[in-house]
Design goal:
Largest interface: A-B, 109 and 111 residues
Order of helices and strands of chain B: HHHHHHHHHHHHH
Structural class of chain B: mainly alpha
Oligomer: heterodimer
Helix content of chain B: over 70%
Distance between the termini of chain B: 27 Å
Radius of gyration of chain B: 23 Å
Helix content of chain A: 55-70%
Distance between the termini of chain A: 27 Å
Number of helices of chain B: 13
Number of helices of chain A: 15
Largest sheet of chain A: none
Largest sheet of chain B: none
């Protein structure tokens, strides 16, 4: 997900000066801020972003494949086929479960770290930098590190004295992979929660303490609600970002065991590699619609929660 | 602050850093320094015989690190340049001219922040354009994906700048391009720094879009890591996989050590407002 913290600011967007543009002013603007300044950016967006998206809606309904040179319309065949063998529902379910798990873990870990490392001591500043290392690292590398760490004869099992196959369990491996995903990105959530904590004025807490609130009470009743913008941003990016995830799952399990961690992008990558381009396109369209359908309610609900406060 | 917390907090912080970040990184370094036999089953023990440099040298040639490094640079640098120039040009006009058409264009322009790009059909499109597997195609795809982010950030930032400076320059007779280049762009420096950090982070580490667009035709650092690792896992060459990870992460460690304050303020830029 290519978004970060500035989204938090979006909650109260700085509107352009409320000058009702009189016609003369509009004419001046046309000269001082010409529309052709938009042309290069929107040309690139059109060719490399919107056009492929439109193609998605076309080629998902064809028999485009790597095995023949003609492309014919086939209606809903691809979707019917994917739905019939259960692949469609399973991939959607796995993707949603993965996204929710990542959002929960990443926010719990990020929030915990932010509270732990809140004070600006030298030690805390160094610790924050360490938690930023995974954020900057390649997700593929992170995946391989954990694959090694979680092998049945790996270091984690040696430390714990057990021989559990962390990445070979058809029920729980998806949780393990979601934790790895959260591990990579928790530093980012931490930074955003830290920035959110800093915006809360000290006198609010002082007032609460004078009124006799305990530390714990002051924290949950005052500081936590005021973090709403940071929560909105962190939950939305974690949720929507992990729906579009790929690298970590590919590097840890590759979709296995028995395809129980095969999120949509893994499926798309695998079928594309097999030359089944139309099926890959159909799933790509499913991902697009899933994210589009979820994005607006998620962002709206979280915003409404902010507005109540 | 209670006394208990001030005493426990540093201990907890150190323990967490060591356990949660330290162990995985330690595993990388010691395994990268082992021989193949010793690294067969990677663990946290120290290598009996340090051969980090030999391993690094081996992946340097086998993983074609120099080629991959320049391949990554060849894609990241033009992508960032295009994104910053075209993105801020568009954002400036979108922020300053509040017409209904521009509101629609802005909504379209930032839609890519949320919506996933169509990775499969973009390959088809690039083939039709004759750009399949080329660096230009890859640069175009990344620019298309991340323009939304740049437009979103920069438009928000331009709205906080008073237009008086631009007007002064216009009265002095400067054309729109001159105003943009000499007045607006320098003012955008903080937000462009943020955008640059983010884009570098995403593009430098990306492997998913690269698989589809240039996989097998152009070397980038993550693509070659995938190749080394895929062969390495088959042959159980964990020492080579982690030697590659070390090589790949070295520039990052240097950048983080030099510019950590910039990166932190860049990533959280604007969150405080």
């Amino acid at each position: 997900m290519p978004v970060t913290s500035a989204a938090v600011r979006e909650r109260s967007p700085v509107r352009p000066l409320p000058v009702p543009d009189p016609p003369r002013r509009g004419a001046v603007r046309r000269q001082t801020h010409p529309m052709w300044f938009l042309a290069p950016a929107f040309a690139i967006l059109l060719v490399f972003f919107f056009l492929p998206t439109v193609f998605n809606f076309v080629y998902a309904f064809t028999d485009w494949s790597g095995f023949k040179s003609t492309i014919n319309p086939v209606g809903f065949d691809n979707f019917a086929q994917l739905a019939a063998d259960g692949t469609l529902l399973r991939a959607v379910r796995i993707t949603l479960v993965y996204a929710v798990l990542v959002a929960v873990f990443q926010n719990l870990l990020g929030f915990g770290l932010a509270v732990l490392l809140e004070r600006d001591t030298a030690l805390n500043r160094v610790a924050r930098i360490f938690f930023l290392v995974p954020v900057l690292m390649s997700a593929l590398a992170v995946g391989y590190i954990f694959q090694a760490l979680l092998k049945p004869q790996g270091s984690l099992n040696q430390l714990l004295g057990i021989d559990y196959a962390w990445l070979g369990d058809t029920t729980w491996t998806i949780v393990v992979v979601a934790v790895i995903h959260a591990w990579k990105w928790m530093g980012l959530s931490m930074l955003i929660y830290l920035a959110g904590l800093k915006t809360i004025p000290e006198d609010l807490l002082e007032a609460a303490r004078i009124d006799g609130a305990s530390r714990f009470k002051a924290f949950w009743s005052i500081r936590f609600p005021l973090l709403a913008p940071a929560v909105t941003f962190n939950v939305a990016t974690a949720l929507l970002g992990s729906m579009n995830g790929f690298d970590i799952v590919q590097a840890t399990t590759g979709g296995g065991p028995a395809r129980t961690t095969e999120i949509l992008n893994i499926f798309i990558y695998r079928t594309f590699g097999q030359g089944l381009f139309a099926q890959a396109t159909a799933m790509s369209l499913v991902l697009f619609l899933l994210v589009a359908l979820l994005a607006f309610p998620v962002i709206r609900t979280l915003r409404r929660r902010e507005a109540v406060l | 602050m209670t006394k208990f917390w001030t005493r426990v907090q540093p201990v907890a912080a150190i323990a967490l850093v060591l356990g949660v970040i330290g162990i995985p990184l330690w595993l990388v370094v010691v395994t990268a320094a082992k021989s193949q036999g010793e690294a067969l089953n990677p663990d946290l023990s120290l290598p009996q015989h340090w051969q980090l440099l030999e391993n690094l040298r081996q992946v340097w040639t086998e993983g074609e690190v120099p080629t991959a490094f320049f391949g990554s640079l060849l894609i990241v640098v033009p992508t960032v340049a295009l994104l910053l120039t075209f993105g801020s040009m568009a954002a400036w006009v979108l922020a300053r001219r509040a017409t209904r058409l521009n509101a629609v264009l802005y909504a379209l322009g930032i839609s890519g922040i949320v919506l996933p790009p169509a990775v499969v059909t973009v390959v088809l499109l690039l083939r039709q354009l004759g750009l399949a597997g080329s660096a230009i195609g890859m640069i175009g795809v990344y620019t298309g994906i991340y323009l939304s982010t740049v437009i979103f950030f920069v438009t928000g930032f331009v709205r906080t700048i008073p237009p008086a400076l631009e007007e002064a320059a216009q009265i002095d007779g400067a054309g729109p391009f001159m105003v943009f280049w000499r007045i607006v762009l320098p003012l955008l420096r903080p937000v462009l720094a943020t955008a640059t950090i983010l884009i570098c982070l995403y593009v430098w580490n990306d492997v998913f879009y690269a698989f589809f667009v240039v996989g097998g035709r152009l070397d980038t650092l993550p693509l070659n890591l995938f190749r080394v690792a895929s062969a390495g896992l088959y042959l159980n060459n964990w020492h080579l996989i982690f030697a590659y990870v070390v090589l790949m992460s070295l520039p990052l460690v240097v950048v983080l050590a030099v510019a950590q304050r910039k990166i932190i303020s860049g990533i959280t830029g604007g969150a405080v407002k």
